[in-house]
DNA sequence: CCTTTTACATACAATGATGTATGGATAATG
DNA sequence: CATTATCCATACATCATTGTATGTAAAAGG
């Protein structure tokens, strides 16, 4: 066995992460051994233990490739006029999120995080989900608060309730789809549900 | 060690199931050994292997104690006038569900099923969740279809979309709460979100 | 009251996964 | 070009868990 060049080594690292994604998704994190991952990448545990300290470290690196905070999605849309249309900002950010999730890597890793792993080592998936939820809900409250001040939000529904409502709906859709992505397209159904929900919460046209 | 009477044996079986609930919830299903469960019930693996074939069998028995199909919740309300008020039937069934979930046993077992276990043996938690979701969604479509025919559902929103919307919201709330039940009361927030959502989807008063 | 089954506890063998230690061949570095 | 650090394979020791086999004392049952 010859020593690999630096780029080759980086490639095997990526290959190991790819393999981890696939095996984790199929067998679950707890039930997959490091040897299964290594062999799925045509490597040995030696390679794996060289690139990562242990399974938790590998898992952490796997997550690192798909960070997707809600605020980034909004910024990525990059439309400055959205400041005056917060409901549209929410809509476009969610659509961006849906598109991201249709990429296999994003879908797989999130499915693993949410449906195919338990606590182990220093990894606490529920804490991570909590962080994600907190971040998203906080952002939503800001945008809905802005919408309320602009009179875009139906009176009688507070920004907090609007945010909790939408976050619950999005979260439910998210979990549901990640459980079996072949049943429906997250982009299609997500767009439909999101639009109707926003329509329901929008201020009715006066006059 | 003396042999126990039949009722004592049934009690130890329940104690083992109780212990399984607690340890599963704390450590996750995959990371808890049968010995940990047995010792947490002040028993040995001998007792566990006598009452259950293996961990999967124990898990299955644990689930059996908290079956809660959506239709049963509606029937349990037992108000015959609900046939003419399908939206109210949905509401009351959900409230019944919320109340159930506040009982520690129901909360724990569902939290385990959804957040603290992976596939193992012949246990596929995602398939179980799929079944639950299918059943609930089917029932919701029926009720919303009935509501639409009675003119109770806001025009422009189909029964299917209404059902998917509500199911996504309820599911999101469900998952969110089960992740950390101390953050809020499922009954309180659930009632609030459910009522506002149903209010939004209800047909506006004509005239 | 005698036998049989029950309801466990204890002991044992087998398995598999983990982490580390070691070795080796070559790319990187000066 | 010599040296060193890198990248990985192989081998080994350890540990935890599982399933089963065996023992046993008392409850069931006649």
Automatic annotation (TrEMBL), chains A, B:
GO MF term (any one): DNA-binding transcription factor activity
Alphabetical keyword list: DNA-binding, Repressor, Transcription, Transcription regulation
Pfam families: TetR_C_2, TetR_N
Lineage top rank: taxon: Bacteria
Domain HTH tetR-type: 10-70
DNA-binding residues: 33-52
InterPro entries reported in the protein's UniProt record: Homeodomain-like_sf (IPR009057), HTH-type_TetR-like_transc_reg (IPR050109), HTH_TetR (IPR001647), Tet_transcr_reg_TetR-rel_C_sf (IPR036271), Tscrpt_reg_MAATS_C (IPR013572)
Protein name: Transcriptional regulator, TetR family
Organism expressing this protein natively: Halomonas daqiaonensis
